[in-house]
Amino acid sequence: MTGFHLLRVVLHLFQGLATCALVFPLAGPAMRERRIRNWSRKLLAICGVRLVVKGAISDSPALIVCNHISWLDIFAVNTCRPCRFVAKSDIRDWPLLGWLCDRAGTIFIARGRQRDVRRIFQGLVQSIHAGERVAFFPEGTTSLQGTVLPFHANLFEAAIDADVPVQPYALRYLDRSGQPHPAVDYVGETTFVQSMLTILRHRDITAELLVLQAMPSAGAHRRELAVAAHDAIAGALGATSVPA
């Protein structure tokens, strides 16, 4: 059955490519969001992933931060409420999905380039002021379930400058017994294709998104916000904090 599900994924990706090329140039923000949400929801369904959201997602402007486990994370969040994501430039190289992420408004950042961070920071503030929802993964890379890596603080400055709170999301993927699902882990030398095939072989995965209490940014320092968001997410997941 893996081959059948893989064919469905490929066909769904091509449908997304067609939508980005033909519909998005003519669509307004509301239609784009609706298309992104529906496309992301169907991708999760094809992969055998059921999304459960715990907590109320607010429409108020905020800088959204989330722990990072898998390439599925972007689509789990977008199923709830489409965002402009800041993601590492490696994602651009994903087969088909990289181009789709780009067309959906993902902001790519190159590792170790301080000039890139400054440019993106300014763009984040502008996007938030324009009413867009902006999200990023402050760990900077994926981590094994049950652990949360230290958060990079630089981009938290955008919440302070835009005068919006930081909204932490805690994300995990569970099996039937409620334990972390090992098929979703996307670390080390695992390639995107290998990860996709592993997920399609196992399926029956529950993605649980916990919407935590928003954190005011007024008067805070970016490092304080980063530590507070990290501790809130790690605590909600019962995860081990990996030292820097």
From TrEMBL:
Transmembrane segments: 6-27
Gene Ontology terms, MF aspect: acyltransferase activity
Pfam family, one: Acyltransferase
Keywords: Acyltransferase, Lipid biosynthesis, Lipid metabolism, Membrane, Transferase, Transmembrane, Transmembrane helix
Entries under InterPro entries matching the protein: Plipid/glycerol_acylTrfase (IPR002123)
Superkingdom, natural source: Bacteria
Pathway involvement of the protein, from the record: Lipid metabolism
Name of protein: Lyso-ornithine lipid acyltransferase
Organism: Noviherbaspirillum suwonense
